[in-house]
Amino acid sequence: MLQDNELICGYKDFLAKGKTERECVAFLVKEAEKNGYKNIDSLEKVKAGDKVYLTKFGKAIALFDIGSDGLEKGMNILGAHIDSPRLDVKQNPVYESDFIVYLNTHYYGGIKKYQWLTLPLAIHGVVCKKDGSTVNVCIGEKEDDPVFVISDILPHLAQKQMKETAAEFIPGETLDLILGSEIPIDPSESSAKADKADKSDKPEKDKAKKAVLKLLKDAYNIEEKDFGSAELEVVPAGLPRDLGLDRSMILAYGQDDRSCAYTSAYALFNSKAEKRTNCCLCVDKEEIGSVGATGMASHFFENAVAELVARMGDYSELTLRRCLNNSYMLSSDVNAAYDPQHGDLYDKANASFLNGGIVFNKYTGSRGKYDASDASPEFIAMLRNALDKANVKYQMAELGKVDQGGGGTIAYLAAKYGMYVLDAGVSVLSMHAPWEITAKEDIVQATNAYKAFLNIE
User: Fold this and answer.
1) Which are the contacts of 123, defined by CB distance < 8 A and separation ≥ 6?
2) I need a surface site. Which of 30, 131, 402, 407 has the fewest CB within 10 A?
């Protein structure tokens, strides 16, 4: 197996520090500037040899290494997404029920809800206040931080629960975190006191909730109403870990699709554009349909390229369209790794395996290729040639058996511009679980594959 300690250590650091889209973009901006990239907003003109980046709302980023050919000739684009399945905090989230304080959530993306119970959880995100200030929140990651949890029914009382289907036995509205607790009041004591005392002596309502809110006020200067303008994400607490006695794998949250985002950016930072301009694009919201201003379905990427065209000479809509149409793109997204414990779900001859190298998916979608981007064989042949010359290991695969289901990527949204697009990424075991599994070999091979792609002229 290939060994690249710098790459693997950097990747694990990225996963540890980038558990939200904002954290990922902040990490990538820092790395980009270390590698000579400049915010395009600081430049009036851009020329061949320049390295620039643009961001959107701190949750999407496009990086460009400008080649010597005009942009009309097209670019080599690595496109990944940096959002992952999680729980989002609601806007009116804090409540007390029978002396326990909870944080109300709404799950994001495709999750198995039962997997999120009884795990140590952390809260990451931002709270934007009326005065224009932003409070960064990260609770549950430091060794001396408290963590949070969603409780579950003990087996002794779970007879009804265990007869329900996996999709039903954990209702979404019960995925609420425990934030704090209070000592219960003895009913008989409370009743006796109530007979003798006036109203001022009555037990304080929501005492535990008020105590928790006071802690937030003291630590972060956050008021309860500030949750209305907050973006807080609940994620598994803890660092990425080496998996297996041989340490050949990585166990971590968010590897779909941050395994491809990091390797794409790393490949860009460790390559040099010659004729064609190289690009790494990391977008948001893929897990819920690539929607919003920071998703691939938005005009973020098109606008970013337009800014580039404008700074490289006289702006022309035709130049922009030709650039997009003549580009090549790898939709850097993961594929489901073959699971021997559930082999009946896969067409083994067309499955991807851990340690098998980067995965090419000619098409994704579900069942009859619905919502797929079906790649051109001419483009696949070009990529096979480039990877074979670079001695990079790759495999061709589908997500699973035809009628078992499927999934989508950002590929079809890029293909609408007329460019060549192919899904190419890392195999992931236990995809969309709070803790996912990848092989270090595949991280290395994906990086080398992306480097080989960026060298295509």
Assistant:
1) 89, 103, 137, 138, 139, 140, 148, 177, 232, 233, 234
2) 131
**Which residues neighbour 143 within 8 Å (Cβ) at sequence distance 6 or greater?**
none
What does the alpha-carbon distance between residue 263 and residue 249 come to, in Å, rounded to a whole number? 16
- The residue behind tokens 């779970």 is 158
pLDDT of residue 342: 95
C-beta separation of 179 from 148 below 8 A: yes
Exposed / middle / buried, residue 288 (Cβ in 10 Å: 0-12, 13-18, 19+): middle
Determine contact, residues 317/303, Cβ cutoff 8 Å.
Answer: no
- 382: Cβ–Cβ under 8 A, 6 or more apart, which residues? 456
**Backbone φ/ψ region at 74: left (φ over 0), alpha (ψ -120 to 50), beta:** left
Q: Residues 292, 297, 300, 306: is their CA dihedral positive or negative? A: negative
Is residue 150 classed as helix, strand or coil in its secondary structure?
coil
Give the model's pLDDT for residue 189: 61
> Position of tokens 């809509």?
317
Token pair, residue 311, equals 């700074």
Residues 139, 147: Cα–Cα separation, whole Å = 7
Distance (Å, whole) CA 317 – CA 287: 31
Among residues 255, 17, 259, which one has the least CA distance to residue 141?
17
- Arithmetic mean of pLDDT, 184-188: 72
The Cα–Cα gap between 62 and 281 comes to: 4
Q: Which candidate, 429, 7, 449, 445, places its Cα nearest to that of 244?
A: 429
Phi and psi of 377, rounded to 5°? Answer: -60, -30
Is the distance from CB of 96 to CB of 197 less than 8 angstroms? no
CA distance 104 to 102: 6
Element (H, E) at 397: none
| Residue 446 C-beta-side C-alpha neighbours within 13 Å | 38
Name the token pair of 178.
Answer: 């425990």
Q: What is the pLDDT of residues 269-307, one digit of tens each?
A: 999 999 999 999 999 999 999 999 999 999 999 999 999
**Joined tokens for residue 12:** 């694990």
- β-pair type (121-128, 365-366): unpaired
pLDDT single digits (tens) 127-156: 999 999 999 999 999 999 999 999 999 999
What are the start-end ranges of the E strands in 323-400? 328-331, 335-336, 358-361, 365-366, 394-396
Collapsed DSSP state (helix, strand, coil) of residue 420: strand
| Cα Rg, the chain, nearest whole Å | 25
Residue 330: beta bridge partners? 78, 422
